[in-house]
Amino acid sequence: MSEADCPAAPVFDDAFRDRLDALFQWRRDVRHFRRDPVPEPVLDHMLSVTCSTPSVGLSQPWRFMRVDAQTRRLAVRNEFMQRNAEALAAQTVSDSTAYARLKLAGLDDAPHHIAVFCDPDPAQGRGLGRMTMPETVQWSAVMAIHSFWLAAQAHNVGLGWVSILDPSHMASLLDADPHWRFMAYLCVGYPEEENRIPELERRGWEQRAPARHHWLRR
Ligand SMILES: Cc1cc2nc3c(=O)[nH]c(=O)nc-3n(C[C@H](O)[C@H](O)[C@H](O)COP(=O)(O)O)c2cc1C
Fold first, then answer.
1. Residue at 173 is within a domain
2. Whose CA is closest to atom 3 on ligand 1?
3. Residues 6+ away with beta carbon under 8 Å from 208
């Protein structure tokens, strides 16, 4: 867009801020999905909004890969089951069976599966800003995932982030560019129910700390 085509900047008011607060508060990591698909124009809009995420040097290093083939989805499910079994064996969790089932429900029911990769050395951005901190490329990709998550919620679409997976195995079973780094596996679809409280909090696993605990001063 040229500067001449640029519309006037909007003024964000209290009513907008209230709605934005609600978006942040109601965004959830979703594990239980309805099976009806999200319309493609909605998915396209979510990605289009995501592409305005800040990125180091304007490199836009995120790569969103739709995983549609049933054979690949099954391979991801098997990968998750194996890694999750290892994770559960490594710790004592009283409700481990129910916990494991939670995540499988997401992988089995979500109509859309999206793997997110990061190109660690994209031509775009021409290396700007990443000489001393090359990891900023990956941070940019993580920020894009957060944008996608919020954009989904704004369309009343749920997203569940699955990370109990081996990154290099995921890259090979999804035939990704060998240089890319696997960042996330996202289950996407309409949630069976909306909830204001994170699932892990409802299950007594962990609680959010109050915001005041997150200010440090020196
Ligand atoms: C980087 C990252 C990785 C995550 N990986 C998993 C995962 O493998 N399994 C899972 O159940 N939740 C995963 N989550 C979701 C968190 O458990 C969830 O965000 C947290 O419990 C807070 O709940 P909320 O997102 O509903 O507010 C992940 C979240 C992030 C940001």
1. yes
2. 163
3. 198, 201
Q: Is 147 left (phi over 0), alpha (psi -120 to 50) or beta?
A: alpha
Tell me how far the alpha carbon of residue 187 lies from the centroid of ligand 1, in angstroms: 12
Domain membership flag for residue 177: yes
Give domain status of residue 114, yes or no: yes
Is the CB–ligand 1 distance for residue 163 below 6 Å?
A: yes
- Residue 34's closest CA among 106, 98, 95, 84? 106
Q: Of 58, 96, 82, 51, which is closest to residue 169 (Cα–Cα)?
A: 82
Question: pLDDT tens across 137-184, in order?
Answer: 999 999 999 999 999 999 999 999 999 999 999 999 999 999 999 999
Contact 170, 120 (CB under 8 A): no
Q: What is the pLDDT of residues 92-116, one digit of tens each?
A: 656 566 666 666 779 999 999 999 9
User: Which residues have CB under 8 Å from 205's CB, separation 6+?
Assistant: none
Identify the helix (H) or strand (E) that includes residue 54.
none
* Domain range enclosing 96: 45-194
Cβ(56)–Cβ(140) below 8 Å? yes
Please report, for the domain that includes residue 155, its CATH number. 3.40.109.10
Rounded Cα–Cα distance for residues 212 and 215 (Å): 6
